[in-house]
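Kindly inspect this chain:
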Amino acid sequence: MKKKFKKHAALTMAAAMAVSCLAGCGGSDDADAAAKKGTEIKKEEKGSSKDSNGRMTISVMGIDWGYGPAQDNEMEKYWEDLFEVNLDIQWINWEDYDQKVNTMIAAGSIPDVVQISKEGNGSYYYPIFTQAIDAGVFLDMTPYLFDNGNGIAETNAVMKNWSGDMWDQAKYNEGIYIMPRSNTEKGQYSGIEVRRDLMKKYGFEEEPTTMEELKTWLIDLSNAATEGEGKKIYALEYFGDNFMDTHLKAFATAFTGQTDWAIDENGEYQYMQFNEKYIDFLNWVKDLYDAGVIDPEFALNNSDTSKWKAGNSIAYLATWYNWNQSADLVSDKNFDESAPEGCEAWCLKPVKGPEAYAVSPNYTDIDSCIAISADCSEEKLEKIMDMFNATEEKYPGYNDVMKYGIQDVHYTLLDDGTKDTTDEKYKKARQDGYVGAWNQIFLKTDVDQITDKFMKDGAKRASDESIQRAKELKEFVTNDLQATGMKNEIQNLQSETYNNQWNVLTDDVNTMCTQYVMGQIGETEWETFVKGIVDSADYKAIQKEFKDSAKGRK
């Protein structure tokens, strides 16, 4: 969170100056007129000129998650032929992506379509992006999406099933400047993945149902497995000093009854770590630490010591659908090659805490999204809206290509229905073509992790028991979130003080959490520390600005 926040914050000043230039000089009326004029000029420059084959060029920028897609690869050519366009696409490494986008915004040279990345507080609307929106750089897509029953969101085979809440999450000042690419699974990081083989081997098959039972269960099973396996088996995979990490947060929710930001009984915005009940969560972690069942040097960020997929821990708080494993435990192993043979994955149902179940709401249900340049001509916008919102119904075979690539280029189809990618030529082609990642810019069907992960074709299919448990988990998490209405209350709200001061204000919070868990400070020191923050002028300003922003959205 801090790394991304610092990127955005560091570039805010430069982008603000650039946006000011885009808007022109003089009074606000003159600035608006200049911005409008500049947009009109650019529309002529970014129109819909076509090549000799009648194809226009669409420029795109998306995130490369470390795969290094090749230029002019087979997937790119497939999409160009399907949609009858030329794609000028840049895949930028994820580590440099935010800075690249922000620099292009500042320079006034954004592509036609830009993938927008999510910042640490769960919002896609970060300061530099919203400044550019205010200057007219990006398109408000509302008129294209909603048009008295005839808009894309109202007629598209995928989008028409999305709730109003989904579109509310996409709004900034009542406009829609980001286009979601899919609706995610609810409460993703609510799965307590466990080593079922160890549960069976040491007689711990009765599953815990409360946070207190879970603590005792983890301590006892960790000790039994450590003795029986002849090596240290930790209770939890946990490393680093970020106590708001998704691999701990659901446990904190169980004690506090909230996620990152909530509205307290006084109507004030409250950060989870400053909830008076957060100390109960820290005590729960401290009990594990004192029992010697979490890495004693967790703060040093050694990710291998307690790694669950390496067989080094009993449990791992992660996504409720990421423990998929083939019925034979081998064809789709889930665990690392270094893990012992016979590792079996399972997932506990969310356990109950004093204030809530250990169910963590998503930052946002928008899986990924794109923004569109306001400088595109209407003809180009029509093409963009068609190709970036394609569906199986309009383009048969679209869904399969999105997921698996092109048959005999990226996989071969076996008799049992398995799409086999083991040949090295397929592996190379898949990496070059960025197979499976185009869904972060193109529309995809709503995520169905049970089908995609557990109900694979052929030998990779999970056991019936695992499929049933995955269905139970999905139902439980969905129903719990619907019943509680819990969400990150500052989603898409704006606060200048938050943008400028939050990193400084909270810089020592996780250090203090670490010191508390390790017994270096006590409850009095923790409470005094928290009071100093919540009583500060900056924290109170943040609360007020979030309130004002929320009022402006109603």
